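Structure tokens please, single chain.
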Amino acid sequence: MLPLYYQNELREAGCDEAGRGCLAGPVFAAAVVLPQNFYHPLLNDSKQVSENNRNELRTFIELNAVAYGVAMVDNEEIDKINILKASFKAMHLAIDQLSIKPQLLLIDGNRFIKYKRTPHECIIKGDAKFASIAAASILAKTYRDEYMLKLHEAFPQYAWNTNKGYGTKEHRKAIELFGISPYHRKTFGIITGQAELF
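Here you go.
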């Protein structure tokens, strides 16, 4: 069982993102405040949880969290401000949505741009260390996967239903064959000699 809290004095929100390393689509982030009695045996870093279990966890988290927020920054803004800043912006937008304001933010990773006056702790591999960050990773991942399934309907040639925009061999081959879509990140070094799809 992952520890619920980093400390016991301040109200914490765990924050994580999904899709930072993708070639296409937005980056999503989530922020989650958990109650003191929160427990689910499957809760872990979203990368360690099966798709079916992630979807089960998403419902459980949404029903039982004290507060949660999910936000995205699209590929066009990622190209404008870079993926790291876009990830932090998505986290800030997710924190904005929290109905109960946290007093401490637990951030998955080693860097963060300060959110207003709220103190934060950066925790490397935090999604496998604290329940609130793990819960945020589940929400960010499931919301992003759902979004990529919708984009797949318009651009099935890239197989986003399976690769979710990550740079798999299949995805890169499709880019070579069809060029890039309006949802590809142009600053990620994937432009081919072919025309863009519009």
